[in-house]
Write a structure and sequence with these properties.
By secondary structure, this protein is of the alpha+beta class. Among the domains are: 36 residues, no CATH class; 87 residues, Sandwich (Immunoglobulin-like), CATH 2.60.40.790. It contains two helices and eight strands; from the N terminus they run H-H-E-E-E-E-E-E-E-E. A four-stranded mixed beta sheet has the order 1-6-5-4, with no helix packed on it. It has a four-stranded antiparallel beta sheet with strand order 2-3-8-7, with no helix packed on it. A hairpin with a 2-residue loop joins strand 7 and strand 8. It is elongated.
């Protein structure tokens, strides 16, 4: 009868336990919740060791590690040629940009200031103003294709003249962009 009383008592104890306590009791140190079930006695506090030194953050108020002053350049937006004249001329597609609209002193703009990159389906024209910001004309996709090696740029009468050699002379261009 003594054994039955012990078994009944254990069953009652198991029913009164939380899932955490049951897991720890049945599995011991291998229990999933073992670390959560530790009990600390009042007064048993463990003091941590504070380590300080360069590169070690120990909390508290922020500390200035290093102060550097650097020159920040303002962000500038690229200047685009937005006004131009376009026309179709048999074997060539022509683009003219009036430089007086974009530059104060047009006499400083020479062919040496112009960088042109022609591709079969697009172009990038960059005009570097001496002591100023560069201006761009970028066409990502032409209305028709060109022959890049035969296309050219020149400056005449204060205008930037861009001549695009058509791949097919019979092609009519309604506009510059596709």
């Amino acid at each position: 009868m003594d054994k039955e009383t012990n078994v009944t008592k254990e069953v009652k104890d198991v029913k009164d336990m939380t899932a955490l306590e049951h897991n720890i009791k049945t599995k011991g140190e291998n229990a999933y919740y073992y670390a959560h079930g530790r009990k600390y006695e009042q007064g048993e506090t463990v003091e941590g060791k504070i380590i300080e030194g360069p590169g070690i953050i120990t909390g508290g108020a922020p500390k200035l590690l290093e102060k550097k002053l650097s020159e920040v350049k303002p962000i500038t937006t690229s200047k685009k040629f937005e006004k131009y004249t376009f026309y179709d001329d048999e074997e060539w597609a022509q683009v003219r940009i009036d430089l007086k609209i974009y530059f104060k002193d047009v006499s400083k703009i020479t062919i040496d200031c112009v960088e042109a990159n022609f591709e079969e389906k697009g172009m990038t024209i960059k005009v570097n103003e001496p002591d100023g910001e560069p201006h761009f004309l970028v066409v990502k996709k032409f209305f028709k294709t060109i022959i890049p090696t035969e296309s050219k740029v020149k400056i005449a009468k204060e205008k930037l003249c861009i001549s695009l050699k058509k791949s097919k002379a019979s092609d009519e261009w309604e506009k510059l962009n596709a």
